[in-house]
# Entry
Amino acid sequence: MSYIKLENVDLVFKVQRERRIKDIIIPGSKRFNSFDRAGEVHAIKHMDLDIQEGERLAIIGHNGAGKSTFLRMVSGIYFPTGGKLTVEGRVSGMFEFATGFEMEQNGWDNIYLRGLMLGETPKEIKEKMLEIAEFSELGDFLNMPVKYYSSGMLIRLAFSVSTAIDPDILLLDEAMAAGDAAFIQKAQQRMHDLMQKSKILILVTHNMQTAIDLCNRCIWLDRGEILMDGDPAEVTKAYMDRMLAERE
Amino acid sequence: MFKIYFKGIIDNRYILLSLVQRDLQMKYRRSKLGVAWSVLMPLGLAVIVGGVYSILFSTPPQQLVPLIFASLNPWLFMSGTADGATMAYPNAEGYIKQSTVSAMIFPLRTAMTNFVTLLYSVITFFGIYLFMEPNRFGPVMFLCIPGLLIMFLFSLGLANMTSVVNLHVRDFAPLQSLIFQGLFYATPIIYDAQVIAARGYAIVYEINPFFYMLEVVRRPMLGSVPELRYYLVAIVLALAVFTAGVYVQVRTRKKIAYML
# Structure
């Protein structure tokens, strides 16, 4: 049984100020940079949340609302600085696209390494390599170092690996924002397939229609807090109304 | 504490081994001689340094070149590992922020990659020494294996610490390079310990941890048995540094993603 449970979870980033000898000797030399105070960013504030199996959760909100941080926290990259987070089930995620690749290595090696990073054993990932390669449609490009790939190609590669391992909990950050039309359609089909296996999906998106189409629950995050939690159609509507109201 | 550390490493062993293998492949990527450089580099260094010194001090090169070879490469392993580890986390930022791989494997990755290079050079050494001094060959030389293990443990401990220190204080890496440069001259690497002992400065190397690590590796390589005292000191030092390194790693492992 997979689930995610947050109990009064806090996540605080410490922002390091950059201070060099020059700044001490020559006061005011940093005139154009007011960002010289050490500070904190409270990315997730006292959050309580329960996500059960079968839920497909969309997260919407402005940039900097804490959406990506939330995903990374659930995946276990950032540990909460307060409260209790319980994640039951195997997690696979896609966060940033151009990171986590060995740029000098070819596509095959990167599939292998990424698979290992997602918790596969060498044997398991080798069995899946052909299928992953086929899904990515990268063909001969897989023999080329990935530093020559376009961003769309990197996304194909990352998406193909991340979704090939049958995770219990799938985390996606704007996964379908790039890639060409044909691949987007294919990716959506695969996401639907994954969801059929009644696991948890958390999707961070700025596309309201995606949230409505793919998800059955939606939360609206603002400055680390949940402003609204409910049906995707209602939450996205409230969010859009607010956006329009702010613009006027 | 050790349990957490070793579990973190064992859980990620496939990734670790795969990364080390890649590092080694990448090292001489696109070069014509490829992995042969791992053998040629230490040999060339020993010949250059040994040649210069035998001219300067008019010692026969047959004596000096093996000594320098057997000292210089282990030294380069220790200093290179401590130096390289300062960039272990920044270089792995993509992995640490993208996947749940344990951050503790990255200093170990540096140490292991460098250790394999050291092993290449040790094998080269024996290959050449066999021709130069066949009569000094004997089973004593197998004693360099425990010596190498002690040295590995010590260097891994250093790497585990320097990687974290450099995240907090980014000025640490250049400072450390300077310290190693100084230690290079203070440690009997390119000269014999007796040279300074004869002038009454034995204390300079007696208090130097690197000296003991070198002794337990290079003495057996040159065909003699190190003093028991050196072994004891080396083992105690290696265990202490390793323990401290594990402590630092286990304490900071959850914070590393925040510090990059």
Notes: The CA atoms of residues 56 and 201 of chain A lie 5 Å apart. The first strand of chain A starts at residue 3 and ends at 15. The mean pLDDT of chain A is 82. Chain A has eight helices and nine strands.
